[in-house]
Design goal:
Helix content: over 70%
Number of strands: 2
Number of helices: 25
Strand order of the largest sheet: 1-2
Order of helices and strands: HHHHHHHHHHHHHHHHEHEHHHHHHHH
Distance between the termini: 46 Å
Length: about 475
């Protein structure tokens, strides 16, 4: 107990410059690494750079007298907290495999090509994903289901995947912010002292204008990206239907998964169910695909078992006779998620060391000291959320740490707690996906197969939310006081 108190005292001796040293060096090293390796940086080099950042932070901690064992204990706690996220990533890989061989993803692409005209594709992506995420409360589930299919359609019709991913993520995080089923939507008011539905009502003040602007941007962007004239997809449609048994019955599976999430079934159970149902549907609807994967002439218990297990665990490719579609009809299974999992683990090691040596607390407290005026307080909160997302690499910590530290400051300025909860969501929840080594950025990049650098500028809703909340604070628009009875 004495050792713990002594350690806490020493972590407070960090200066702001010292606390920022690991962050500054990490950003420099990552920037250089990406310039050298490009898209291949996610394959391992970025992961090691994060460990170098952790080593720099640990060295700083040791120089301050902080025990290495204590640092490792905090890292262990951080890694334990992402156990569920790692398992979800593995099951998303498994689900994408069985949804490919069962014809679910090909059917989504097939009907999507028929319904979604290229001239309205990007705004359609945003609207579809917004509806799904509002219904499920999960940006991760949205990307892992309709998001994957929409990326496939984008590739098929020649729309840049970075743009498509930006529209998908914008819609997905709209629901993640507003849905009462979302964990962050419940966490933010709980930390700040507001209640759920007051928080949601107050959050719409900044969120609705942001999503409206995002929609307009995608409509304009889509106008310049593709022709508004008719597009002939007959060749692609014929190739898909000749390769797979396209049957609307397969949509039963994603509907069941989305319904389970809507009913607050744990995501792991929902994804496992979706994976297994995908395998069952593959046996009954796609026997030729299973034979192609196993190299067997007839479907037997053994060949079906081999094909389904391969789709769940390792790389799977379906030959369609069309070069454009062959790239779509591939899945990495659980194996395909390992680079992302590796990145998340290394990011949490860095975040754990930064937390243990007191860097996160020092950075947040320094930002808190800047909050003399009302606008400065909002700006400090936003900056703190972004800093935690950059350093701790965790969306939840970017809500919890600033939420705890700034709650009294908002009360002292006679500001209602929903001001804080809204700012936490506008800046903490949505910016996590814009950082490659953050758990959310790594997840979305891994699931959609599009690097953060490719979709960053197109994730309009996410970065615009950050500036929108500051805009409202600067102009003192809808800033609710503690004694106010109306928003």
């Amino acid at each position: 107990m004495k050792n713990s108190s002594k350690t806490n005292l020493k972590t407070n001796n960090l200066t702001l410059f010292e606390a920022l040293i690991p962050v500054i060096l990490l950003v420099i090293l990552l920037a250089y690494n990406v310039s050298v390796f490009g898209d291949e940086a996610m394959g391992g080099s970025n992961q090691f750079i994060l460990l170098i950042g952790a080593a720099i932070a640990a060295t700083l901690g040791l120089n301050k007298g902080i025990e290495f064992k204590m640092m490792i204990n905090v890292v262990s706690k951080n890694l334990k907290s992402i156990t569920g996220a790692i398992l979800i990533l593995l099951f998303v890989g498994a689900l994408s495999g069985t949804w490919l061989i069962s014809g679910i993803i090909p059917s989504m692409i097939y009907y999507g090509l028929k319904i979604l005209h290229p001239s309205i594709f990007l705004p359609s992506c945003l609207i579809i994903c917004a509806i799904i995420s509002i219904s499920t409360g999960s940006s991760w589930t949205t990307s892992a289901t309709v998001g994957i299919a929409l990326i496939g359609i984008a590739k098929a019709i020649g729309i840049p995947t970075g743009m498509a991913a930006g529209a998908i993520i914008s819609g997905a995080y709209f629901g993640d912010k507003l849905s009462p089923l979302s964990d962050t939507t419940n966490l933010a008011p709980a930390i700040s002292g507001s209640d759920l539905f007051t928080h949601i009502k107050y959050l719409t003040i900044t969120t609705i204008p942001t999503i409206a602007i995002s929609l307009v941007v995608f409509i304009i962007l889509n106008f310049f990206v593709v022709s508004t004239g008719p597009t002939d997809n007959d060749l692609l449609l014929n190739s898909i239907s000749n390769t797979f048994n396209i049957n609307p019955l397969v949509f039963t599976v994603p509907i069941i998964v989305i319904f389970m999430i809507f009913k607050k079934t744990p995501p792991l159970i929902a994804l496992f169910t979706g994976t297994m149902l995908g395998g069952v549907f593959a046996i009954f609807l796609q026997p030729e695909i299973l034979n192609q994967i196993s190299g067997s002439n007839t479907l037997t218990l053994k060949s079906a078992y081999v094909s389904i297990l391969n789709a769940i665990t390792v790389d799977t490719s379906i030959e369609s006779g069309n070069a454009a579609l062959n790239e779509l009809f591939t899945s990495g299974g659980m194996k395909g998620m390992l680079d992302t999992i590796w990145l998340v683990i290394c990011a949490m090691v860095f975040g754990g060391i930064m937390e243990a040596i007191g860097s996160l607390k020092k950075i947040s407290s320094s930002l808190l000291n800047l909050g003399k005026s009302t606008f400065a307080l909002f700006a400090s909160t936003a900056g703190s959320c972004l800093a935690i997302n950059l350093t701790a690499s965790d969306q939840y910590l970017s809500i919890v740490i600033p939420g705890k530290m700034f709650s009294k400051a908002y009360m002292d300025k006679n500001l209602a707690p929903e001001n804080l909860s809204r700012t936490l969501e506008d800046t903490g929840t949505v910016t996590s996906v814009l950082i490659p080594w953050n758990t959310c950025g790594a997840y979305q990049s891994g699931v959609l197969g599009v690097s953060v650098f490719d979709y960053f500028i197109y994730a309009v809703f996410n970065w615009l939310s950050f500036f929108m909340t500051l805009f409202f604070a600067a102009l003192n628009i809808k800033i609710k006081k503690l004694d106010s009875k109306t928003v």
